[in-house]
Amino acid sequence: AMSNGMMDVARNSIFRPENISFYDAIAIFMAVMVTNIILLDKFNSLGMPTSTTVSLVFELLGATFVVALFKISAPESNLGLGDLLNAERALSVILGIFLSVAIAFVFGTLIQFIARLIFRFEYKSRLKWKVGLFGGIACTAIVYFMLLKGIKDTSFMTESLKGWIDSNSVLILSGSFVIFTILCQILHFLRVNVLKAVVLVGTFSLAMAFAGNDLVNFIGIPLTSLASYQEFMSAGGGDAHNFMLGALNKPAQTPIYFLVGAGMIMVVSLATSKKARQVTQTTVGLSSQSQGEELFGSSRLGRALVRMSLNTYYWLREHTPAKVRLWLGSRMDNSVTQEEPGASFDLLRGAVSLMVASVLIAWGTSMKLPLSTTFVTFMVAMGTSLADRAWGRESAVFRITGVISVIGGWFITAGVAFIGAGIVVCMMHLGGVPVIIAGGVIAVSLLIRSNRKFSKKKKAEQNETLFQTILSTEDSSEVWRLLLIYINEKNEKFLGFITDIYENVSAGFIKEDSKILSKTEKILEQEKNVLKSQRRRLTLCLRKVRPETAIEKSTWFHLNNNMMMSMTYNLSRIVEVCKEHVDNNFRPLPAVFHERYVEISGKVVELLRESRAAVADGSPDRIDLLRRRCEEIKKELSSCARDVYESLHSDDASNMAVAYVYLNMLQESQEFITSLRKQLRASGKLNLEPSSYRSFSRYGASLA
Question: How confident is the model at residue 700 (pLDDT cuts 50, 70, 90)?
C-alpha cells in the first residue's frame, strides 16, 4: 500500500511520454515484460541473485532507445534523442542503483563491526542493559524510515496528516526510542530473547521495504499500460501511432486494491517458489559463519583479492599498537560464536543485517529512488559477514569468487536487459500486433518449460538432504553411519555413470559416431567438476566423525575419491583420441580387432555393473571377488595389446592410425580397471566396521 509513489518510474522516469505514441508505448511495455520474464527466470533457475530493478530500468532504457531511433530517423521527424529519452532522470536512477550497492556494503560492515565490538561473539552473557538500547535504536530506525518516510506516499494520506508528521518528527522519534528501549529491557528481564524480537521486526520491515520498492517492478509496467489504454480510449480511440501519452506525466494514483492484490500474489509466489529458496541459499551460503559446501570455485581475481587483503591485513597488524591488537582480538574472537542450532550465523548478525537492509531500502524508497533491493540486501549480508570474520583462509577465495560472480551477473543483467529489450521491441515495432501477441505466447511457453526442467533438476538433487543432515548431526558416532550411506550412494551413482560412458565411448568409436563422442566429452568435463564439489562435501563430513575413526578411514576415504577422479581422466583420454580419429574420417577399426574388442569391452561393462551392485550392497566379500575379476580382465587387455603390437609390424601402414587409437583404448582401459580395483578395495575397507566401534562392541559384550 506504500508503493504508490514508486509507480512514476515506469510512467515517466526513462522516457518522455508527451512524445511517445500509444502504439510505441505498448510495444515498449510488451518488450519489457517479455524480456523480464525470460531474463529473471533464467537467473532464478541458476540460483543467482539478480536485480528486478536493474532489469526493469535497463529494459525500459533499451526499448525506448530503439523506438527513439525509429522516430528520429523518420523523414518528417524533427525530434532529437533527448526529446524521447529522459536522460537526466534515467542517469540519476542508474547512479542511485550503483551507489546503493557500495553504501550497503560499507554500512553493513561498519555497523556489524561496531555491534560485534560491543557484544562480542559470546554475546548471550553480555546483553544485560545493552540489549535494551540495541532494540530501541533498531526499532526506532525501522519506524522512522518505514512509517514516517514511507507513509507519506500512500494513497490514503491527507495533507494535514503529512504536515503534522513533518512538524512532530523529533517528538515521534524521541518517544519511539524511549518506549522501545524500555519495552526491550522489560522483555529481557522477562527472559524473552530480544534479538529474536528484533529479527522478527526486521523481517517484517524488510518485507515492507521490498514491497514498497519492488512492487513497481512487478505491476508498474502493466498498470502504466492500463493507464495508457484508458487515456487512449477516453479520447475516442483513433490512430494509435499519433496519439501521444502526455497524461503519463501526471503522478500515479494507483487504486489500493491493485496494490493489495499484487502484494498477495507476491506473498503466494515467494512462499511457494523453489527457485526463490535456491537464490536465498546462495546468499546465506556466501555469508555463513561456519564452513560448509562452497557453491563457487576459485578464480584468478578472487585469489588476487585474497592475497591483497592478506598483505593489507599483515601491514595493518605490524603498524597497530600491541595493546590495541590484543583488545580487538579479545572482542573479535570468533572461536566462541553462539549460533542457534542449524543456523548459518548468530542472532546478532541476523538482527543487524535485517535492520540495515530494511532501513537503507526504505530510505531510498522515501526519496523515490528505485534501489536494487536484491543487491542492497546481498551486499549488507556480505558486509556483515566480512565484519564477523566469516571468510576464513579456507573459504575466502571461494566466497569472494561467489560475490564477484553475483556482481558480474548484475552487470550482465543490465547489458542483456538493454540489448534484449531493444531487439524484442524492434521486432514488435516492425511486425505489429501479431508479433506482440507471439512474443507474449513465447515468453509464457519458455517460463512453463523452464519450471518443468527446474522441477526435474530439484528431484535429482533431493538426495543432497543427507549431506545437510550429516553436517547438522551432533552425535559424532552417528555421523560415520550416515556418511557411509552417503559415500555408498555416491559410489553407486558414479559407477552407473561411468558404465554408461564406457558403453557410449565404445559404441561411438565402432560406429564412427562423432555426436556421441562429443556429447560424452562434454559430460565427462561436467563430471570432473561434480567430483571436485563432491570431494569438498565429503571432506567436510569427515571432519565431524570421531577422530579415531576419521584417522583409521581417511586413507581409504581419499583413495576412493582419487580413483573416481582417475577413472574419469582415463575415459577423457580415450574419448579425446577416439573423437579426433572419427572427426578426421580415418579408417574404422579393422575386422581383425573388431570382434575381440566387442568381447572385451562387454566384459568391462559387465564388471562395472556388478561392481555397482556390490557397492550398493556394501559387501566386502563380494568386492574381493570382483577385484580378482579385475586382474583377469587386465590380463585379457594386455593380451589384446600384444596382438596390436604384432599387427603393427606385419600390417600395411594404412592401418597404423586406427591401430594406435585402439592401442590407446586398451592401455587406458587397463589403467581404468586398475583404478576400479583400487576403488573397490577402498570401498570394501570403508564398509568394514571401524575398530573403535568393534572395541566398544566387545567391551559392551563383556559387560553383558
Answer: very low
CB neighbours of residue 609 within 10 Å: 13
Tell me what pLDDT residue 1 has: 66
C-alpha cell at 151: 507513509
Q: Find, among 296, 250, 504, 255, the residue nearest to 396 by Cα.
A: 296
More confident residue, 152 or 282: 282
For residue 685, which of 629, 623, 626 has the smallest C-alpha distance?
623
What confidence tier does 290 reach under pLDDT thresholds 50, 70, 90?
low
360 Cβ contact list (under 8 Å, min separation 6)? 100, 103, 104, 107, 371, 376, 380
**Helices (H), ranges, 120-158:** 130-143
- For residue 288, the one-letter residue type is S
What is the C-alpha separation between 57 and 70, in angstroms, rounded? 20
Of 232, 229, 226, 224, give the one whose Cα is nearest residue 249: 224
**Torsions phi, psi of 15, nearest 5?**
-120, 165
What pLDDT band is residue 697 in, cutting at 50, 70 and 90? very low
User: Residue 21: beta bridge partners?
Assistant: 244
Distance CA 4, CA 201 (A): 23
Beta bridge partners of 244: 21
Task: Give the whole-angstrom CA distance, residue 522 versus residue 520.
Answer: 5
Nearest to 552 by CA among 686, 425, 362: 686
Q: Please report which confidence band the pLDDT of residue 704 belongs to, taking 50, 70 and 90 as the band edges.
A: very low
pTM higher than 0.70, yes or no? no
Q: Where are the alpha helices (DSSP H) in 73-193?
A: 81-84, 87-119, 130-143, 159-167, 169-189
236 close to 181: Cβ distance less than 8 angstroms: no
Contact 371, 365 (CB under 8 A): yes
**pLDDT: which is higher, 120 or 682:** 682
pLDDT tens, 466-494?
A: 776 777 676 777 888 888 888 888 898 99
Residue 85: phi, psi to the nearest 5?
Answer: -100, 130
Q: Looking at residues 277-295, what average pLDDT do you find?
A: 68
Residue written as cell 581383425?
A: 592
Distance CA 323, CA 451 (A): 57
Reduce the DSSP state of residue 169 to 3 states and report it.
Answer: helix
Dist CA 328 CA 203 (whole Å): 31
What is the distance between the alpha carbons of residues 578 and 576, in angstroms, rounded to a whole number?
6
The closest alpha carbon to 363, from 141, 180, 207, belongs to 141
Higher-pLDDT residue of 205 and 666 is 666
Cα–Cα distance measured from residue 9 to residue 20, given in angstroms and rounded to the nearest whole number: 16
**Residue 698, C-beta contacts closer than 8 angstroms, at least 6 positions apart:** none
More confident residue, 93 or 219: 219
Residue 664 buriedness (CB in 10 A; 0-12 / 13-18 / 19+):
middle
Is residue 22 within 8 Å of residue 245, measured between CB atoms? yes
* Structural domains of the chain sorted by starting position, each given as residue range(s) with its CATH number in brackets: 4-215+257-284+300-460 (no CATH), 466-703 (1.20.58.220)
Contacts of 556 by beta carbon, 8 Å cutoff, 6+ apart = 681, 682, 683, 685, 686
- For range 405-431, the mean pLDDT: 84
CB atoms within 10 A of CB 222: 14
